[in-house]
Amino acid sequence: MSKSDSSKKKIQAIRGMNDLLPDRSALWQYFEGKVQALTQRYGYAEIRTPIVEQTALFARSIGEVTDIVEKEMYTFEDRNGDSLTLRPEGTASCVRAAMEHGLLHNQTQRLWYQGPMFRHERPQKGRYRQFHQVGVEAFGLEGPDIDAEVILLSARLWRELGLSDHVTLELNSLGSSEARAAYRDKLVAYFEQHRDQLDEDSLRRLTSNPLRILDSKNPDMAPMLADAPKLMDHLDDASREHFEGLTALLQAAGIDYVINPRLVRGLDYYGRTVFEWTTTALGSQGTVCAGGRYDGLVEQLGGKPTPAVGFAMGIERLVLLLETLELVPDSALGELDLYVLPLDDVATTQAMLLAERIRSELPELRLQLHCGGGSFKSRIKKADKSGARLALLLGEDELEAGRATLKFLREEREQMSLDQGALIDILASMTASDERA
């Protein structure tokens, strides 16, 4: 291909990194608005971190032998020769920022964040190379009560989105690092006895991260994995007591759960409580929210020992779930309420001033002003195409009489001629009645 030909070739988005177009952004705003309001009600403050961090942050926190670090990170050298990585998850960045700015010194913190993450994996429905997560992290609290709180927060989000009947809470405990090391030896011994049943991926993990074998989705290995030693049977006393405290709190709050002894999570920093919210409504893409305790991570990254717990949820997958189950209210779609339409150029100025007045006095009303002129027919066509429920027409006759014509674009109703002085009250009453309906 010649240079001139290549310069004319259309540039497209990178595979697995998608545009969010206007017809879908309102749905994302609906979900994000629910999260923002809920985290504020629980007393969590927002933190925003850079999307690029030093590679060592993720290698040290996530674990160098995890799939994320070995296969999926977007890592590059900058002009100074430093190794940088697009963040593949949010917890490590949140911990780094909290440590760097002294947020963890003799104090507790409840934080939340949202934003893009990056992993180089095979794109599929609900899973992309640039994806977006909401995360919640709590620092400085070591009891099971804070574990219960973050789970209750997520459970309340499901209720407010209408998802409670479509998700299941799965729990497990990974115990202390010492108990896990002892269990790891027993698990490796068991897998060695069944080496001929392990797939290639599991054989690779046998020496590097054997607990992750338990999370295998290979159906041929399911019977063998079901008989494997269970970590819950090898917990240290403190971890067992912590887990029993958590389940008691969840039972008191009426939160149903299933204990899943094979739930281990894919990141090295987890210990004690781990949990996932799963659904069967999206086929193989079953997990919509996951988290747990990571009491050793702050110390691992050079800080003082700090208990911590949190979760992350994928926005793409949850938006897909809401759409699949048809749980998106019409009010969340961001459709226009009113299209203000000057019928000729003479009415343009007055239409603009009237639109601004309506915006000032009815700030909740979604209003768009017609711009760009055009013939009468083309103006009416644009009003209809806007998707608005109502159109407010202003022409020479209306200006002389101090009135405006209200046209119903989505209903078979006679249009109304309104006095401009009473317009605000009429629009307010119509909007209120629509909201009640």
Strand percentage lies at: 15-25%
Mean pLDDT: 90
Number of strands: 16
Q: Could you list the spans in which at least 5 consecutive residues all have pLDDT below 50?
A: none
Describe the fold and architecture.
The chain is of the alpha+beta class. Helices cover 40% and strands 19% of the residues. It has 16 helices and 16 strands. The chain has helices spanning 3-8, 22-41, 55-62, 67-72, 91-100, 144-161, 177-193, 200-208, 222-226, 237-252, 297-300, 315-324, 348-361, 376-385, 396-401, 423-436, and strands at residues 45-46, 52-54, 74-77, 83-86, 109-118, 130-139, 168-173, 258-259, 273-278, 287-293, 308-314, 338-342, 367-369, 390-394, 403-408, 416-419. The strands form three sheets. The chain has an eight-stranded mixed beta sheet with strand order 1-5-6-11-10-9-7-8. Helix 2 runs antiparallel to helix 6 (144-161) and helix 6 packs parallel to helix 10. The termini are far apart. The mean pLDDT is 90.
Summarize the structure.
This protein has about 425 residues and is an alpha+beta fold. The chain has helices at about 5-10, 20-40, 55-60, 65-70, 90-100, 145-160, 175-195, 200-210, 220-225, 235-250, 295-300, 315-325, 350-360, 375-385, 395-400, 425-435; strands at about 45, 50-55, 75, 85, 110-120, 130-140, 170-175, 260, 275-280, 285-295, 310-315, 340, 365-370, 390-395, 405-410, 415-420. The chain has an 8-stranded mixed sheet with strand order 1-5-6-11-10-9-7-8. The protein has a 5-stranded mixed sheet with strand order 13-12-14-15-16, with helices on both faces. The protein has a 3-stranded antiparallel sheet with strand order 2-4-3.
